[in-house]
Amino acid sequence: MPTPAPEDYPPALFLTCEGGVEATELTRGPWSHGVMHGGPICGLMSWLIERELDREDLICSRYTVEILSGVPVGKLGVSANVVKNGKRTAVAEASITHEGKLLARATSQWLSRPKDLTGDQISVPPIPSQRANPGAHPDMEYPRPGFNADAVELRVITGSTEESGPGLVWARLDHALIAGESASKFQQVATLSDLGAAVGFEYAEGEQSFINTDVTLQLLRLPQSEWILLDSAVARSSTNLACCRTTLIDEIGVIGWVLQSQMIAPEEIQL
After folding, report:
1. Domains in the chain and their CATH numbers?
2. Rounded to an integer, what is the distance from CA 231 to the centroid of its chain?
3. What does the mean pLDDT of the chain come to?
4. Most buried residue, 18, 109, 122, 210, by most Cβ within 10 Å?
5. Are 139 and 209 in contact (CB under 8 A)?
6. CA pseudo-torsion sign 68, 73, 76, 81
7. Band of the pLDDT at 119, cuts 50, 70, 90?
8. Can you tell me whether residue 263 is helix, strand or coil?
9. Burial degree of 196 (CB within 10 A; 0-12, 13-18, 19+)
10. Is residue 68 left, alpha or beta, with left meaning phi > 0 and alpha meaning psi from -120 to 50?
């Protein structure tokens, strides 16, 4: 089947509908073309939480997503709840369901917004002019349209999507997260936070691929621009468990970190 032209792509990763949201083809991941990538899962629940909490005076300092099962591309049930809403701190959570089954959940902690937005000043490499080929991973067939190939834009500094090892890659969200809305800075970084495992991917024993089961995002501040630099590397053990560690950097300096627990990928993603 020929790849659709970009003008024929959906208007956003998600459409709102009665009773929940509908995930479009822009959310598709490489593990199974009927299953969402982890990035849109993280982005969707960040939108749910931010909308439910509605606190401009707070910033999300910690955001954890647990992917309990494959999340299908299609209509989904969603919910969000504020657990604590204090003067200087808040805790909120969200979930995604399909046909009554819990597929993913998120928890978040919110703290008073920092007054100093300079962050850790470091020397930041410029954004390359050439767009990376996200479909060059040797073991995966990226769907078109799909999240890696179309919903985000990648510019590689070091590393490669064709070879394992640490990577340094600029990324930005290239489509709307929710149709008819502009993604907030928190929603943008949350959607990109799952990409570290692809930027710095490693193989398990026997050249088997790792897949992450969660994402924990720790933020010092929000990004000052749409481009975020991911400095990612995977540490693995002899037990074939691994952890991807990513430092997040904007055009000023460090904004936070991401940890992703990893295990050997199953032969088929279960829904």
Report:
1. 6-264 (2.40.160.210)
2. 14
3. 91
4. 210
5. yes
6. positive
7. low
8. strand
9. buried
10. alpha
Backbone region of residue 165 per phi and psi (left: phi > 0; alpha: psi in -120 to 50; beta: other values): left
Residue 270 reports pLDDT greater than 70? no
Distance of CA 178 to the CA centre of its chain: 14
Kindly give the pairing relationship between strand 20-23 and strand 75-85.
Answer: antiparallel
The CA dihedral of 222, 227, 229, 230, to the nearest 10 degrees, is: 80
Please tell me the distance from the alpha carbon of residue 200 to that of residue 248, in angstroms, as a whole number: 13
pLDDT (0 to 100) of residue 246: 98
**Does the pLDDT value for residue 138 go beyond 90?**
no
User: Residue 26: helix, strand or coil by DSSP?
Assistant: helix
Which tens digits make up the pLDDT trace of 89-109?
999 999 999 999 999 999 999
| Buried b / exposed e along 238-253 (16+ C-beta atoms within 10 A) | eeeebbbbbbbbbebb
Q: How many residues does the chain have?
A: 271
- Cα dihedral 251, 88, 49, 219, rounded to 10, equals 30
Q: For residue 158, what are the CA distances in angstroms to 88, 166, 171, 178, 180?
A: 40, 8, 13, 31, 35
Residues forming beta bridges with residue 72, ordered by sequence position: 35
User: Residue for token digits 């089961």?
Assistant: 213
